[in-house]
Amino acid sequence: MADTVPDISQVPLLEMLINGACSDIVFLPDEDTTIAAQTLTTTTTTTKPTTTSATASTATAKPSTGTCGTVFNPESSLRVINGQRVAVGEYKFLVTLLKNGQVVCTATIIDPTHVMTAAHCTVRSTAQQLSVGIAEHDFTKNDGEKIIQVKTLTQHPRYNDVQLVNDISVLTLSQPITGIKNAEPVCLPVNDQCMNLQGRKCIVAGWGVTSQQGGTNTYPDFPSDASVQAYDGNSCPYRESPPSDKNTQICAAGESDTCEGDSGGPLVCQYGGRWVQCGVTSYGLEECNVKDTQGIYTKVPAYSTWIQSALAK
Fold first, then answer.
1. Is 244 inside any structural domain?
2. Which member of 21, 36, 130, 184 lies 3.0 to 4.6 Å from 150 by CB, making a disulfide possible if both were Cys?
């Protein structure tokens, strides 16, 4: 196949074909990204111990097709602090990521057949092990959710498991979300969206830990969200839990924080009255909600070209 394609480096293509044939994981040729020489002291783990029964060079992304990022209630948007319970249908793009039937991370719908999450949620996994809970809201009951098997896992080829840079994966679903109530893609950034955050008020959401008391993590049966202020990687306000790469990561801080289980979930900001995903939850201090600390998020617009290549597969 490589010999039939003119003007292309054969080695990356051959590696991609070999990887895909052997593991169901597709490694697309990546954009140039810089890995800073810095080691993280802590990372966020993501495993939820219960089983659900139904439970970088910057480029411009193509505008999302159809409806995306619908704001649930414009009059009360950006109102949440300290992690409050999400209403049914409030973030239709918010989904669970399951490995062998257990919820391990959060993810987002980015088009009818793809979801996006963090690479540290998919590393050392195969597509066959992964599924996604679409329109999931309450683990204790059947409330219209649907579990869809992952068909293909496309993980960033330069993901670094120590520094957690290039922490992004795109999953192709075995069937589209079409017809599922309360399921809709988030908007991906276009033009200069998400490029100049500087304390912009945004939202983080997921199925992460809601309490850390006595060394015990409390996982909720429903998603929570919180209001945060987002910053570009070179203007993060705190020294604790700094970005490993200021060009491909952003940070956020507020009265509440993402925690274990929120990994892979969205940091979304409003542009033009719609939710646009600016970040993918990546890492932070092991102890969540510590004063004067920040969470680190993969900067979505830094990977626009790579994301579009994954969607075009």
1. yes
2. 130
pTM, two decimal places:
0.77
The answer to whether 48 and 96 are in contact (CB under 8 A) is: no
Plot region of 129 (φ>0 → left; ψ -120 to 50 → alpha; else → beta): alpha
Residue 25 lies in a domain: no
Instruction: Report the domain count for the chain.
Output: 1
Cβ count within 10 A of residue 189 = 23
Please tell me the distance from the alpha carbon of residue 219 to that of residue 1, in angstroms, as a whole number.
Answer: 48
**For residues 220 and 44, what is the distance between their CA atoms, to the nearest angstrom?**
17
Structural domain contains residue 92:
no
The model's pLDDT over 7-56, given as tens digits with 9 standing for 90+, comes to 444 444 444 444 444 445 555 554 434 333 333 432 344 333 333 333 33
CATH number of the structural domain spanning residue 238: 2.40.10.10
> Looking up tokens 């439970």, which residue turns up?
55
Torsions phi, psi for 308 (to 5 deg): -65, -35
Which domain range does residue 262 map to?
200-301
Non-local CB neighbours of 215 within 8 Å, separated by 6+ positions: none
Q: Using one digit for the tens of pLDDT, what is the confidence trace for 193-244?
A: 999 999 999 999 888 665 545 556 566 678 888 889 999 999 999 888 899 9
From the list 307, 54, 313, 50, the residue with the least C-alpha distance to 180 is 54
